[in-house]
Design a protein that fits this description.
This protein is an alpha+beta fold and about 350 residues long. It has 2 domains: about 1-65, no CATH class; about 70-340, q2cbj1_9rhob like domain (Jelly Rolls), CATH 2.60.120. The chain has helices spanning about 1-30, 35-50, 55-65, 85-95, 110-120, 150-155, 155-160, 165-175, 245, 255-260, 325-330, and strands at about 75, 80, 100, 120-125, 130-135, 145, 180-190, 215-220, 230-235, 270, 280, 285-290, 295-305, 315-320, 340. Strands 3-11-8-13-7-6-4-5 form an 8-stranded antiparallel β-sheet. A 3-stranded antiparallel β-sheet has the order 10-9-12, with no helix packed on it. Strand 1 and strand 2 (about 80) form a beta hairpin. The mean pLDDT is about 95. The structure holds fe (ii) ion. Fe (ii) ion (FE2) binds near residues 201, 283 and 287.
Length: about 350
C-alpha cells in the first residue's frame, strides 16, 4: 500500500514537472520555431502520463488563434465531388473511430503517373538509409524503400494531391483550424524480410510527431491480405483509450498479444483496397503495416497538423513547382508554411 501511494505521488510530481517544462519549451518554440529535445520529450511523457488528454487540451488552446476558413459549398478534388454532408460524416467517423476510408478513389491516370515515378526515382533503404537506390523488385535489398520527402514535394503530380481541396478540408474539419501541410512520405514495402520489421513499422505503435495531426494514405497499387495491408485499432486514438500499463512502457512498439486482450475483435481493422484507394487516420490509433507474403506495396502518405511543435524537420525546398502550385502557396500561407519556393 505504502509503495502504491509513493508511486502515485511520484507520478503526480513528474507530471507537474513535465507540464512546467512543456510550457517553458513551448513558449521558446513560439519565439524560435524550433522544438528543443527536452520540450519534445515532455510532450511524449505527458501524452503517456495523461493517456492523450494533455494533447487534446493543448490542441484546443492552440487552435483558438487559428480559426478554420468557412467552407459552405461542396468541393471537387481528385477523389471527385464531396458534399458538405459527406464532410460531416467523414469528420464524425474520424472523431469516433480515428479512421475513415473514402468511398471514391483517386483517378487512375494520376495514380499510374506516381506509380511509374516510383519505379524510377531514388529511394533510401533500411537500415541505414544512406545510399540512394532505385527500387528493383527483382533484386531486393531491403524490406522498405523510402523516397526522399524533398523529392516528393518537387513532383508536380504529388503537388496536385497536396493542393487537393477535399483532402485539405477533411484535415481542416478534423483539426478545427487551418491545417499546416506537415510532410509527405512514400515507400515501397517488400518481401525482403520474412518476419515483422520494426523499420517498416510492422509492429503496433502510435505516432507522436506533433500535438495533433491527421494522416491521409493513398494506396498506389492494389493492396490485399498478401502484400502488407495497413492495420489499426479503431477508437484507440481517443483520450483514455489506451491501456495505461502499455503507455507506461513509453513511446515504444507493442506486440499484438498485448493488445488483443484489451480491444474487441471488431475494432481491429485491416485496410485492403485497390490502387487509388484513400483513407484518413489519426495515427494516435495503434497501427502497423503487415509483413508481406508476396508482391509489394506502394503507399503515399500526407500529414496535416495544427502546429509544428514536435519533431524538427527542415523546410522543403521546391525548385520544380507548377504555376498552379506557386499560386496556391502564395494564397495559402499557413498551409504552405513548410514550403520554400525557389525561383
Ligand atoms: Fe506509424
Amino acid at each position: 500500500m505504502r509503495t502504491l501511494i509513493y508511486n502515485l505521488r511520484q507520478r503526480i510530481k513528474t507530471k507537474a514537472k513535465n507540464k512546467e517544462l512543456f510550457a517553458k519549451e513551448f513558449s521558446a518554440f513560439k519565439q524560435k520555431g524550433v522544438t528543443s529535445p527536452e520540450g519534445y520529450k515532455a510532450l511524449l511523457d505527458l501524452y503517456c502520463a495523461t493517456n492523450g488528454k494533455f494533447n487534446e487540451k493543448m490542441h484546443k488552446e492552440l487552435i483558438a488563434s487559428n480559426p478554420p476558413k468557412k467552407v459552405s459549398t461542396a468541393l471537387t478534388g481528385l477523389t471527385g465531388k464531396t458534399e458538405l454532408s459527406e464532410f460531416d460524416t467523414i469528420n464524425k467517423t474520424l472523431n469516433k473511430e480515428g479512421y475513415c476510408p473514402f468511398g471514391t478513389k483517386i483517378n487512375a491516370e494520376l495514380i499510374s503517373k506516381i506509380y511509374n515515378y516510383a519505379l524510377k526515382a531514388n529511394t533510401l533503404t533500411a537500415p541505414l538509409y544512406a545510399k540512394k537506390t532505385v527500387y528493383d523488385p527483382n533484386n531486393l535489398v531491403s524490406e522498405i524503400y523510402r523516397f526522399e520527402q524533398n523529392d516528393l514535394v518537387n513532383n508536380t503530380d504529388i503537388q496536385q494531391l497536396i493542393m487537393d481541396p477535399v483532402l485539405i478540408n477533411i484535415a481542416r474539419n478534423y483539426l478545427g483550424c487551418e491545417p499546416i501541410f506537415d510532410f509527405p512520405a512514400m515507400w515501397w514495402s517488400t518481401t525482403f524480410l520474412k518476419e515483422a520489421s520494426g523499420e517498416a513499422a510492422q509492429l503496433y505503435h502510435f505516432d507522436l510527431d506533433r500535438i495533433k495531426w491527421l494522416k491521409i494514405f493513398v494506396y498506389l497499387n492494389d493492396v490485399t491480405l498478401e502484400n502488407g495491408p495497413h492495420r489499426l485499432i479503431k477508437g484507440s486514438h481517443l483520450p483514455g483509450a489506451k491501456p495505461q500499463a502499455l503507455l507506461d512502457r513509453g513511446y515504444v512498439r507493442i506486440p499484438d498479444e498485448d493488445l488483443v486482450n484489451h480491444y474487441a475483435a471488431e475494432n481491429f481493422v485491416v485496410v485492403t483496397g485497390k490502387a487509388g484507394s484513400v483513407f484518413a487516420e489519426d495515427t494516435k490509433c495503434w497501427h502497423k503495416g503487415t509483413p508481406l507474403i508476396s508482391g509489394h506495396r506502394l503507399v503515399l502518405e500526407f500529414e496535416y497538423t495544427s502546429s509544428m511543435f514536435g519533431v524538427n524537420y527542415p523546410k522543403f525546398e521546391i525548385e520544380n513547382a507548377s504555376e498552379e502550385f506557386k499560386e496556391f502557396c502564395a494564397n495559402n500561407n499557413t498551409y504552405a508554411s513548410n514550403f520554400k519556393l525557389k525561383n
